[in-house]
Design a protein that fits this description.
Length: 110
């Protein structure tokens, strides 16, 4: 028995006519940034324990994690602004677009 694999094209264009062109880029960056932020977070506490004797290294580690969190926050603000523009225009982003951001097919077409 072989598993059937289907590749889903990652969206590169705006999901609707009224959405800003940069919305897709922001949404992809937010997805990958969040993924890495959570994944690296599991290694952050042990890293701080290893770096504890060197206060400068601990300060650098905290600065990097803080800047990463700030970047994700800024991406979230831009995403909210772009999605608000879509809603204000009275449009709806299709479900297929949301699933394609995750790299998956919608449940109805599996």
């Amino acid at each position: 028995m072989t598993a059937q694999t289907t590749t889903v094209r990652i969206p590169r264009s705006a999901p609707t006519a009224s959405s800003p062109r940069w919305l897709s880029i922001v949404m992809r960056c937010d997805r990958w940034g969040s993924y890495w932020f959570v994944a690296v977070g599991f290694f952050f506490a042990p890293l701080l324990l290893l770096l504890a004797p060197w206060s400068i290294a601990v300060a650098i580690a905290w600065t990097l994690i803080s800047l990463s969190g700030l970047w994700l926050g800024i991406l979230g603000i831009f995403m909210a602004f772009g999605l608000a523009k879509v809603l204000r225009a009275g449009e709806e982003i299709p479900e297929e677009y949301w699933w394609s951001l995750l790299g998956k097919l919608p449940p109805s077409s599996r």
